[in-house]
Amino acid sequence: MAKRSLPKHVGFIPDGNRRWAASRGLSKEQGYGFGIEPGLVLFEMCRSLGIPEVSVYCFTQDNTKRPSLQIQAFRSACVTFAEEIARQGAALLVVGDETSSQFPPELRPFRTRQGGGMRVNLLVNYGWEWDLDGLRQGSIRSHEVSRLDLIVRWGGGRRLSGFLPVQSVYADFYVVEDYWPDFRPEHLEQALGWFKDQDQTLGG
Amino acid sequence: MAKRSLPKHVGFIPDGNRRWAASRGLSKEQGYGFGIEPGLVLFEMCRSLGIPEVSVYCFTQDNTKRPSLQIQAFRSACVTFAEEIARQGAALLVVGDETSSQFPPELRPFRTRQGGGMRVNLLVNYGWEWDLDGLRQGSIRSHEVSRLDLIVRWGGGRRLSGFLPVQSVYADFYVVEDYWPDFRPEHLEQALGWFKDQDQTLGG
Prior knowledge:
With 204 residues, the first copy, chain A, is α/β, with parallel strands linked by helices.
């Protein structure tokens, strides 16, 4: 069976911000701000490696049921990150329900992809049902997002939690036990090394 | 966060039959027959434990692109298994495209659930696109299959390979390195033990 080289599209689930904060004696919402800088390092790594497309699970419609201090914190971290990578030339697309008040107005222009560099898809106020419900009108709402080859999740959880169900059908799933704010470049290196050793059969 | 007890619905991906056969000097298609008996042991274990519902990935529309000897072998193994658990009183539902010649005619009666014991859903000539395409007419085609709590995959693969994308959104994913025909009861015991230690947040 064919061995692979670099994935064409990697999904990232940066989980564990709240647990990280609690483990340091901080309040839960303080964890999100510490996730921005690791995201920028990861973005730069992917760009240097030549990965053509990445998707990041920022927050979901379900997440907006949390306490308002947390919502403010992850929304703000998300906007800061998005604006910074747009400034750095990412071809940014934001995927999520922009008709809701939970959608940050600053990100509305990015519901259409902007820019010409590495494709970065940020899931913002995203919901898997919202996404699939698009099929009733013809196609999933994330139809501009390509199929995922590899998904990397931080924080030890071994589940997708609603992350792009259609694009995830054949993705290899790599779990990092560390919480997201403890991101280190080796996490991505190890995930990519592991990915190369996986067989790819696509059911054939 | 709440700790769980027994999952209400477990999905099984019994992968590795061909690799198991090759490792024993058998031809690839001979592996499938060795998967039937482990399946019956697993079925009995789940029933004894009181798990209310299980789903098994038998074969997909993509799998039917394989050499015809292999297709015959997995179809035959699948029918033998289905008929035996029906005989043993499972509430059997077969989910898959029955309009195709690849669908075993013997299983057609089970496209409607039969029987009143543990619910067992067998994915037979199943395809994730076939399933989701049902949304265009109102609901997914696997709408009678409930949400999965836990998915156990044999054969080391860390991917869903198109297994029930809607029901899998919040499922915990447990991987057994052994090939499916090398199934041992400890595999399920370890998966259930691990499952109990996972947090359940459902995004909240």
